[in-house]
Amino acid sequence: MSGAMWLAVASMSAVAVGMAVGLGHGLAGFIALVCSILLLLMPRSWYFNIFLITSGVMFFSPATGSLHVAASDLLLPLMLIGAFINRSGGGTVNRVLAFYGFMLASAAMSAVYAQLHLKTFDAYLAISSQVKFTVVILYLVSVVALAPRDSRSLRSTFRVWSAAATLQAALCSLNLMGISVFPGSAYRTRGLFDDPNLLSGFFLISIIVLLWAHAVEPVPELLPSFTILCLGLLAAASRSALATLVVVVIGVLILTSSQFRALKAYIALLALATLAGGSAFILSAGEIPAVERLSGAFQEVGDDSRLSLWGRAVELWQASPFVGVGPGLYPLYSGDIMGISGRTGTGFVAHNSFLTLLAEQGLVGMLVATAGFVAILRVIRCEPARDVRVAMILGVTVLGVQMATLNLQSLRYVWIFMGFVLVWGIGSSRPWVSTRQPMDRSVA
Predict the structure, then answer these.
(1) What three-state secondary structure class fits 42?
(2) For residue 288, with 0-12 CB atoms within 10 Å meaning exposed, 13-18 middle and 19 or more buried, which class applies?
(3) DSSP character string of 257-276
(4) What are the residues whose beta carbons fall under 8 Å from the beta carbon of 153, sequence distance 6 or more?
(5) What is the CA radius of gyration of the chain?
(6) Rounded to whole angstroms, how far apart are CA atoms 383 and 388?
(7) What is the Cα–Cα distance from 376 to 425, expressed in whole angstroms?
(8) End-to-end CA distance of the chain, in Å?
(9) d(CA 420, CA 434)
(10) Nearest in space to 367 (alpha carbons), one of 116, 124, 110
C-alpha cells in the first residue's frame, strides 16, 4: 500500500476513534488544522489527498444552523492559494468562474424580485445559500487547478478517496451488528456526515470513483472495497441510494468491458445467493434494524412527505416561473408540510435539487445550470476509452438520481467529482500535460 493510501487509512481511523469516544466533529477539524500545519513537511503529492480525505467529514455547524460544513473547509484557503500559484487549467477555471457568475446573477435577480414583489423574504437565507454555493465552486476550482493531470496519478488519487470511504463504510457497517461507532440510531448510521442520506450519496459516488480507478488500470482492492461500500450503504438504510446502486450494478454488467469480468462474476454470485434466499441480510430482516427499516420504508413510499415537498416546489415555480421565489427561500414556504426544523427554525428543504433550483431561481437559473451540465456531458462524450466513459456516465447518473430525492447542491463530493471529470477532459484535450499510456486511450 502506498504512503498516500496509508495516510487515508490513518486519517479516517483517527476521526473514527475520536467520534467513538465522544470527542465529536471537533477532532475532525483539529486533524485538518494539524495537516495544514504539516503541509510543508509532507510530500507535495499528499496535499491534495488530505483535502480529499477530510472532505468526507461533514456536519451541521451550531454557529450557522443550516450551513453544512466539512473538515476540509479549513484547508480550502490553502488549496486556493496553491491554485493561484499553480495557475493550471486556466481555461477550464475561467469557464467555471463564468458559470458561477451567471448563477450568481440569476440568484441576485431572484432575490431582488422576491424582496420587491413577494411578501416573504429572508436576507440571511438568501445570502447563506450563495455562501454555500460559493464554497462548492471554490472546491471545483481547487480540483481543476490542483488535481493530477496524468491518468496514473489521478488513479492513485481515486484510490485514496475510495480507501478513506471504504474505511468509513466498514465502521458504518458495524451498525448492522448492533455496534454503533458513530452517532445515530440503531436503524441507520449517519457516519461522519450527520445525515444518513448524504452519507449514502458519498458511498455511492465513492463506488464510482473506485470503478473509474479500475477502468484506468485494475486495482487489487476492487472486490473487497465494493463489498464494504455496499454494506455501508445498507447500514445507512437509504431507499433511493439502494435503488441507485441497482442502476450502477446494471450499468457495470451491461456496459463495461472484460476488464470488469471479476466484478461481474462477483455481482452475479451475490444475485444468485440473494435469489436463493441465502443472503444473511434477507434471512435476518427481522433482526437487523437497518433492513427492517428499509422493508417498512419501501412499503410506505406513497405516504412519503417528500411528495408533498415536491408538490410545494412545483406550486412555487408556477407562481413565479421565470425567476422563482428567491435563492434559499423555499424553506419559508414548507413549514406547514413537515413542521419547523429545530436546527434551522424554518420549514424543511424540498429534498430535490432540481425542483429547489426551479422553485427558487425559476427557468433562468435552471437554464444556466443546464448549460453547466451540458459542458460536463461534452467532456464525457469525447472520452474514447469505453470503461472510463462508462464510469463517468454512471457517476453523473448517481448524482442525478440522488439529486432528484435530496438537496445535494452544497455537498463537497458532488463538485469534487465534477472537477475530476473536467480535469480528465483537460488531460484528454491537451496532450502536453498528459502522460497517459496507450492502453488508457484505447477505444473499446
Answers:
(1) coil
(2) buried
(3) -GGGHHHHHHHHHHHHHHHT
(4) 45
(5) 21
(6) 7
(7) 9
(8) 30
(9) 14
(10) 110
226 grid coordinates:
465494493
At 337-368, the pLDDT tens digits run: 887 776 677 888 899 999 999 999 999 999 99
Give the length of the chain.
444
Grid coordinates belonging to 325: 421565489
Quote the Cα angle for 444-402-32, to 5°: 95
The pLDDT tens digits for 63-94 are 555 557 888 887 888 788 878 877 676 788 99
Amino acid (one-letter) located at 87: R
Q: How far apart are CA 181 and CA 174, in angstroms?
A: 7
CB-based contact 191:237 (threshold 8 Å): no
* pLDDT greater than 90 at residue 178: no
Write out the DSSP string of 313-344.
Answer: HHHHHHHSTTT-S-TT-GGGG-HHHH---TTT
Distance CA 164, CA 63 (A): 28
The pTM is what? 0.84
Is there a contact between 413 and 205 (Cβ–Cβ < 8 Å)? yes
Q: What is each CA distance from 173 to 188, 227, 286, 291, 355, in whole angstroms?
A: 10, 11, 17, 12, 32
Phi-psi region of 295 (alpha: psi -120 to 50; beta: other; left: phi over 0): alpha
Q: Which of 227, 233, 241, 246 is nearest to 189 (CA)?
A: 233
∠ Cα 223 196 380 (to 5°): 55
385: β partners: 443
CA-CA distance, 107 to 364, in Å (whole number)?
9
Most confident of 109-123, 217-231, 340-354: 217-231
